[in-house]
Specification:
Shape: globular
Oligomer: single chain
Number of domains: 4
Structural class: alpha+beta
Number of helices: 17
Radius of gyration: 22 Å
Largest sheet: 5 strands, mixed
Bound molecules: iron/sulfur cluster
Low-confidence stretches: none
Strand order of the largest sheet: 7-6-10-8-9
Helix content: 25-40%
CATH superfamily of the largest domain: NADH-ubiquinone oxidoreductase 51kDa subunit
Mean pLDDT: 95
Length: 445
C-alpha cells in the first residue's frame, strides 16, 4: 500500500485517538516526522486498558506501528510504558528489538501520559506553547489507536473498545466491548455496583467526566467506567457548581502559589500560573483579561485542584473559565511575550511530580485499588447506541434509515468529503431502531 492508500484505509476504518479527544488518526498520519511515540504510559489511576490492549492485541500493535513508521518516514519508534507495567517490555522485547524499537519506562507518576511530558522526557524537546508534537518532529499515539491502525490495514474497522470497569463494583475487569454498549451492560459484567447511589466517572478520575446515567453508551474514546458512591469526595468536587467554586475561591485563596509550584505544565517551562488566574476572581475588564492569560496553556490535569491546593479550592476550573474568556475575546499571548515567558523545565521538576500512590491516598481511592484483569466476554448487547459525534471534526451523517438491517462492521455514517472526521460503523448485526443527530440505535439479532 502506498501512503495515500494507507491514509484512506485508516480514515475509512474510522480510526480516531482512543486515549483522548478522538482526533482522526489519518490526519496525524499525513505528517512526515522523525519520531513516533507509542503512548502506553496510562497515568489515570485505576485504569488498565492500555496495558491489556497491548497484551491482547500484540500482533496488531506491532503491525500498526510498522505501518505508521513507514507512512510517516520516522527513523525512531519509542514505546512508552509505566514502571508498574515494566513486565510488558520483557514480554514484547523480541518483536521490539527485531523492529528496532526502544522502550521508555516512566515512573508511576501523574500525568506521565501527557504528550508534552512524554515528548520532553523521550526527546528532550519542548513542544511550543499551544503546539503539537508535530512541531518538534514527533507524533504521539495511544497504543490502542495503533492497534486499530494495524487492524484497519487488515480490513477491520473500529467497532470495539477496550475499557476498564472498576471502583465500587464486585469484580473489576478490563475488557473489550462493542461501541455503543450501555454502561449498565458493562457494570453487569463487572458483577454490578456495590453502592446504592452510584456515580460513574468516565475515562478517568482526574480528567474524566461524570455521568449518573447507566444508559450512556461506550464511545470510541471511553477508557473506563469508575463507579464511586455519589457522596465520594471526587464526585462532590467534580459536580460543584461554578457559582460554588467561584464564590469559595474568591473568598479563600491566600495566594500561597502551591497550585503553580506543582503544576506539571509550569514546571515544564510553560507560562501557566494558576495562582495568578485565581487573582482574576477579584478583577474585571482589562485586568481580568490580562490575568486570564496565565491560564492559556492549562491542560486541565487537575493537579492544582485535587492535590496542590491546601484549601481545596478549584484553580483548574477557574482556569477553564479563564480560557473561555480568552476565546470569547480572541485574546492570547503575543510571540514576543512567549519568547520571554517560555522557559526550560524547572530543575526540581522530577521532585514535584505526583506519585500515583499519593493520588490514591489523597483522593480516597485506596479502597478501590484492585487489579482489573482482562476478562474476555462473549458480548452480545441487546441494544447498542452508537455515537456519531465523539471524534474531533464534523459529526457523522447517517447513511442508514430506521428499520434497515445492518451487519457488524458496516459503515452506517460518514462525514462530508474534505471535512475533518471519520466514518462510523455498526458494532453489532441487527436492525436500526432510532436515529438522532448524535446517535444511531441498533437492536441486535
Ligand atoms: S489543571 Fe492546574 S495543574 Fe493542571 S495544567 Fe491546569 S493549572 Fe496546571
Ligand atoms: S494553592 Fe489554593 S490557596 Fe494557594 S494560591 Fe493556589 S488556589 Fe490559592
Amino acid at each position: 500500500m502506498n501512503n495515500q492508500e494507507v491514509l484512506r484505509t485508516v480514515r475509512e476504518a474510522g480510526v480516531v485517538g482512543a486515549g483522548g479527544a478522538g482526533f482522526p488518526t489519518y490526519k496525524k498520519l499525513e505528517a512526515q516526522v522523525s519520531h513516533i511515540i507509542a503512548n502506553g504510559a496510562e497515568c489515570e489511576p485505576l485504569l488498565q486498558k492500555d496495558r491489556e490492549s497491548m497484551r491482547q492485541d500484540r500482533e496488531a500493535f506491532f503491525h500498526g506501528l510498522s505501518v505508521m513508521q513507514e507512512t510517516s518516514g520516522a527513523r525512531q519508534v519509542t514505546i512508552a510504558i509505566k514502571r508498574k507495567n515494566e513486565d510488558l517490555a520483557d514480554w514484547m522485547r523480541s518483536e521490539a528489538q527485531e523492529a528496532g524499537y526502544e522502550f521508555f519506562i516512566y515512573e508511576d507518576v501523574y500525568p506521565a501520559g501527557d504528550e508534552y511530558v512524554l515528548v520532553y522526557e523521550i526527546t528532550g524537546r519542548q513542544i511550543p506553547p499551544g503546539g503539537l508534537p508535530l512541531h518538534v518532529d514527533c507524533v504521539v499515539d495511544n497504543v490502542e489507536t495503533i492497534i486499530n491502525v494495524g487492524k484497519a490495514i487488515r480490513g477491520t474497522p473500529v467497532t470495539h473498545k477496550y475499557l476498564t470497569v472498576t471502583g465500587a463494583v464486585r469484580e473489576p475487569l478490563t475488557t473489550v466491548v462493542p461501541i455503543g454498549t450501555r454502561f449498565e451492560d458493562c457494570l453487569r459484567a463487572a458483577g454490578g455496583c456495590t453502592v446504592d447511589d452510584p456515580t460513574y466517572l468516565v475515562s478517568g478520575v482526574m480528567m474524566g467526566g461524570v455521568s449518573r446515567d447507566a444508559c450512556d453508551p461506550v464511545t470510541k474514546t471511553t477508557a473506563g467506567i469508575i463507579v464511586l458512591p455519589s457522596d465520594h469526595y471526587l464526585v462532590r468536587r467534580k459536580t460543584a457548581s461554578r457559582e460554588t467554586y467561584t464564590r469559595i475561591g474568591h473568598g479563600q485563596c491566600d495566594q500561597c502559589s502551591l497550585c503553580t509550584e506543582l503544576c506539571p505544565r509550569y514546571i515544564l517551562g510553560y507560562p501557566i500560573e494558576p495562582h495568578r488566574v485565581m487573582r482574576t476572581l477579584l478583577m474585571t475588564g482589562e485586568a481580568k483579561a490580562r490575568g486570564s492569560l496565565w491560564a492559556q496553556y492549562c491542560c486541565e490535569c487537575n493537579i492544582c485542584s485535587y492535590i496542590a491546593c491546601p484549601e481545596s479550592l478549584d484553580p483548574k476550573n477557574i482556569c477553564v473559565d479563564a480560557k473561555a474568556l480568552l476565546r470569547q475575546n480572541q485574546l492570547g499571548r503575543t510571540p514576543a511575550e512567549l519568547e520571554q515567558l517560555f522557559r526550560p523545565p524547572h530543575p526540581a521538576r522530577h521532585g514535584r511530580e505526583v506519585p500515583i500512590k499519593t493520588l490514591y491516598r489523597r483522593l480516597g481511592l485506596d479502597p478501590y485499588d484492585h487489579k482489573a484483569p482482562f476478562a474476555p466476554r462473549d458480548w452480545e448487547p441487546r441494544e447498542v447506541s452508537i455515537p456519531l459525534n465523539t471524534h474531533v471534526g464534523q459529526p457523522g451523517r447517517p447513511l442508514v434509515s430506521v428499520g434497515d438491517a445492518v451487519t457488524a462492521g458496516m459503515k452506517i455514517a460518514d462525514v462530508d468529503p474534505g471535512k475533518l472526521g471519520c466514518p462510523v460503523h455498526a458494532s453489532v448485526s441487527g436492525r436500526v431502531t432510532a436515529i438522532s443527530a448524535t446517535r444511531i440505535d441498533i437492536t441486535s439479532n
